[in-house]
Amino acid sequence: MMTRETLLKNLDRPETKIDMVLDTDAFNEVDDQFAIAYMFRNPEKLNVKALYAAPFLNEKSESPKDGMEKSYDEILRLLPLTGRTDMSGSVYKGSDRFLPDEKTPVVSPAAEHLAELAARYTPRNPLYVAGIAAGTDVASAILLNPKIIDSIVIVWLGGHAHHWRDTKEFNLYQDVAAARVIFGCGAPVVQLPCLGVVSAFTVSEAELRKWLLGHNRLCDYLARTAIGEASKYADGKPWTRVIWDVTAVAWLLDGRFFHEQLEKSPIPEYDGHYAFDPSRHFIKYVSYLDRDALMDDLFKKLRG
User: Fold this and answer.
1) Can you give the CATH number for the domain in which 15 is found?
2) pLDDT, tens digit (0-9, with 9 covering 90-100), for 15-47
3) Is residue 101 situated within a structural domain?
4) What is the signed CA dihedral for 252, 257, 263, 269, rounded to 10 degrees?
5) If you ran DSSP here, which 8-state letter would residue 13 be given?
6) What φ, ψ does residue 94 adopt, rounded to 5°?
């Protein structure tokens, strides 16, 4: 098992170029596309090894498998717009269902690839796993090869703030078993909570039109998709749109965007709440983000 000293060291933000993978339910919301584009716009810092299509279930999918398949197609659709068609062979289909329990993995190309890839890394040179979806693929990889907890750092956008009234956040509550595996396995984890923290990262129609529209094909696709989705949802009322998935990529890039501290790893309960145990290991917990600084960097990078 990883020593506490090594665990805390790996919770520090990397200072050099890193290898990473992204696990994303790309068809679920517009913010996944922003996160993917932002990731590829930072090649001097991020060496992307693979993208995994994660399952999701809501009004946009008929089943977790259907959500995963649609996410896989959306990732491939986005690659030409980011100029990264070279990555098309490094996109893997993820889980076709959520975890049945906390001990049984859902075997998929994504989980198998992550379990094998992460085994090549070390505690001193870990693979960074950015998750902006339900934790099914990541948890399955850990269950397939538990030794990889010594060679990965999981940066997960999931759950709400620890002070929030519940944990019924989409990524966490779809697969509570997977969240319990991630928070309980002992791997270094950085948690970006949604409501109460990164929910501050929203964008308006005026900003999208001013800063993105007309600059390039990628900016046009992102802005028009976000405006179309948000306008449909708002139904004629004023709106801002959350694009909080960007924050998981941003954490890897620059500490000036966040305030964070060490906290004991929470225990997501099946009743929609956290439990806390003072004997648990530490995680890195993000408690604040500088919305304007991150939005400025995002727009500049997307414009190229």
Assistant:
1) 3.90.245.10
2) 889 999 999 999 999 999 999 999 999 999 999
3) yes
4) -80
5) P
6) -100, -155
pLDDT range class, residue 1, cuts 50, 70, 90: very low
Per the structure, the count of domains in the chain is 1
- Which structural domain range is residue 249 located in? 4-201+243-303
Contacts of 30 (CB under 8 A, 6+ apart): 222, 225, 226, 229, 230, 241, 243
79, part of any domain:
yes
Dihedral angle, C-alpha 67, 221, 49, 60, nearest 10 °: -10
3-state helix, strand, coil in the chain (%, to 5): 45, 20, 40
The answer to the question of residue 234 being in a domain is: no
CA neighbours closer than 13 Å in the CB half-sphere of residue 275: 12
219 is a domain residue? no
Structure tokens at 166: 């519940």
The number of beta carbons lying within 10 Å of the beta carbon of residue 129 is 30
Mean pLDDT of 105-125: 97
Coil vs helix vs strand at 73: helix
188 closest CA partner among 150, 140, 228, 158: 150
Give the mean pLDDT of 49-62: 97
Does residue 139 carry a pLDDT above 80?
yes
